[in-house]
Recover the amino acids of this structure.
């Protein structure tokens, strides 16, 4: 299987790394939709939200989101998290990832 995010995790695909540990790779999005647009990607391959079988994966991934938001001081003004699941929702890479967006006002509803 060829997965863009797995290639980034393995180091064979270049990316702008913000943070990395055993559980997550955090990178800057190459097509940012806000002044700050970061992707938080689990280092193990899980295709989508629907494929998560280990609830601790969510805990570790969301803890990384919180840590990065605080380190970048995004929590001071606010930020938005987006997780797409499936093609109709806008998921273009079949590897679970969380978009962390900040630096501008966001409207509701988002779609």
């Amino acid at each position: 299987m060829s997965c863009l995010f797995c290639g980034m995790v393995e180091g064979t695909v270049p990316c702008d790394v913000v943070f990395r540990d055993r559980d997550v790779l955090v990178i800057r999005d190459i097509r940012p939709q806000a002044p700050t647009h970061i992707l938080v990607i689990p280092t193990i391959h899980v295709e989508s939200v629907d494929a998560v079988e280990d609830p601790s994966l969510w805990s570790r991934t969301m803890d990384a989101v919180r840590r990065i938001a605080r380190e970048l001081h995004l929590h001071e003004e606010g930020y938005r998290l987006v997780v797409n699941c499936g093609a109709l929702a806008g998921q273009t890479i079949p590897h679970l990832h969380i978009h962390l967006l900040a630096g501008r006002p966001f409207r509701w509803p988002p779609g």
